[in-house]
Every structure is written in structure tokens, then in C-alpha cells.
Design brief:
There is one protein chain. This protein has a single domain, classed as Alpha-ketoglutarate-dependent dioxygenase AlkB-like (Jelly Rolls). The chain has 2 helices and 16 strands. With about 220 residues, it is an alpha+beta fold. The chain is globular. The protein has an 8-stranded antiparallel sheet with strand order 3-4-14-11-16-9-6-5, covered by helices on one side. The chain has a 4-stranded antiparallel sheet with strand order 10-15-12-13, with no helix packed on it. A two-stranded antiparallel sheet has the order 1-2. The longest helix has 16 residues. Bound molecules: succinic acid and manganese (II) ion. The site of manganese (II) ion (MN) has 3 residues, from loops. The site of succinic acid has 9 residues, from strand 9, strand 15 and strand 16.
Length: about 220
């Protein structure tokens, strides 16, 4: 990416205490592997779909879950709001990736044992309103990996959905970890910039985001 004649410098930043943005953490090769894995999960055993909201609407992103199935606002082993199937098991390599992300962000994996991943796909016009990830019973960090189109990721505070917040640009390959005092901060994706991804990742269009979490459930 360039900014006029000069490359746009994107630097690692602690956006809030415990919230760390690491630009360009995933190699293109790693992104390709993740895109392939997500394509597999999107096919089944529970197909990727627009999650139905209790108010009658649907989310604009399409989602598939791994390990545990999330629906507003709980986790279950079976996707009772989709096809009743048990979700794909959470693979050991994804635990390792989560631990490596924590080492990168904090210098220590803290015994991280993620057991669920929410894979969100943003087609043109999709966005995500400000919310907290709070269905987990564990206070372990959330690891977020982005592939494809770049976006504005709005990272706020634990008290309200509004200000103060910081807008961070997430680009394909970026890592964002939020834990500690920021674990229950509100966050959302108000904007995705179409056709800004790199087809070399295997994603021709759209934005893919994978969040790893510890549910604290058994
Ligand atoms: C999420 O909050 O679950 C997804 C965030 C993102 O797409 O970056
Ligand atoms: Mn979230």
C-alpha cells in the first residue's frame, strides 16, 4: 500500500491496555491456508450463514463457527438455529496459532487454550455494530485475524458502545488481540473497503475475520 509517493508505515500499537495491533503478522502463505480451512468449514457440517437476530433481522456478515456454535447470545455444541449438526471440531493447529498470537502480542501465551473460532465473512456492504464478546465464561484474550479487504475496526471501551473509541485500519494479514482490561471492550466494523484485498491470499473479494476465544465451557 502506498500513501502518495511513500509507503504507508503501519506499526505495531497498543491501542488500549491489553489491546495490541500487529500489522502484517500472517504471511500470504499462512493466509492462503486459513482461507482454505475457512472454505472447508463454510461447507459444513454447519454451513456458513447470516445469523438470525432475536429482533427478527439477520446479521449482514455470514458466519460459521468451529469448536462451539455461537448464536445470539450463547454457545452450544450443535447448531440448533441452522441444521442441528454438531460444529466442526477445533483443530490443534488452531490452538497453536492462538498461542503464537499471544506470544506475539504479550510475549507469553499465558496457557491460552482457545476452543472456539467465529469465522465472519464480509461481502460488499456488510458491517458489524458495536458489541462486546461476552458469552464466554473465560476472561482469556480474543485473537482476531483478518484476511482480504481492509476495514475500519472500531475499538471502544468497556462501559458504553460510544466514545471514547479508536479507529484502527485492519489490513489482510493483521493480528489484533484484546485481553486483560480490554477483554470486554465494545468493538465493531463500521466500514469495509471493497476490492482492497490481495487475490494471492486465495480470497478474490470480501473480508474474512477469524476470532479465537476460550469459551470456559465443557
Ligand atoms: C467480531 O467482533 O466478532 C469480528 C470483528 C472483525 O470482523 O474484525
Ligand atoms: Mn466481537
Amino acid at each position: 500500500m502506498t500513501d502518495g509517493l511513500f509507503p504507508l508505515r503501519r506499526e505495531r500499537a497498543e491501542v488500549a491496555p491489553g489491546a495490541v495491533h500487529v500489522p502484517g503478522w500472517l504471511s500470504v502463505e499462512r493466509q492462503r491456508e486459513l482461507v482454505e480451512a475457512c472454505r472447508g468449514w463454510a461447507r459444513g457440517p454447519v454451513p456458513m450463514r447470516h445469523t438470525a437476530l432475536p429482533g427478527g433481522g439477520v446479521m449482514s456478515v455470514r458466519t460459521v463457527c468451529v469448536g462451539w456454535h455461537w448464536q445470539p447470545y450463547r454457545y452450544t455444541r450443535t447448531a440448533d438455529d441452522v441444521n442441528g449438526a454438531r460444529v466442526a471440531r477445533f483443530p490443534a493447529w488452531l490452538v497453536e496459532l492462538g498461542r503464537a498470537a499471544l506470544v506475539e502480542a504479550y510475549g507469553d501465551d499465558g496457557g491460552y487454550a482457545p476452543d472456539t473460532a467465529l469465522v465472519n465473512f464480509y461481502e460488499r456492504g456488510a458491517r458489524m455494530g458495536m458489541h462486546q464478546d461476552k458469552e464466554e465464561r473465560s476472561g482469556a484474550p480474543v485473537v482476531s485475524l483478518s484476511i482480504g479487504d481492509r476495514c475500519v475496526f472500531r475499538f471502544g471501551n468497556t462501559e458504553t458502545r460510544g466514545r471514547p473509541y479508536t479507529d484502527v485500519e485492519l489490513v489482510s494479514g493483521d493480528l489484533f488481540v484484546f485481553g486483560g482490561p480490554s477483554r470486554f471492550a465494545h468493538h465493531g466494523v463500521p466500514k469495509v473497503y471493497p476490492d482492497t484485498g490481495d487475490p494471492a491470499t486465495g480470497l478474490a473479494a470480501g473480508r474474512l475475520n477469524i476470532t479465537l476465544r476460550e469459551t470456559g465451557l465443557s
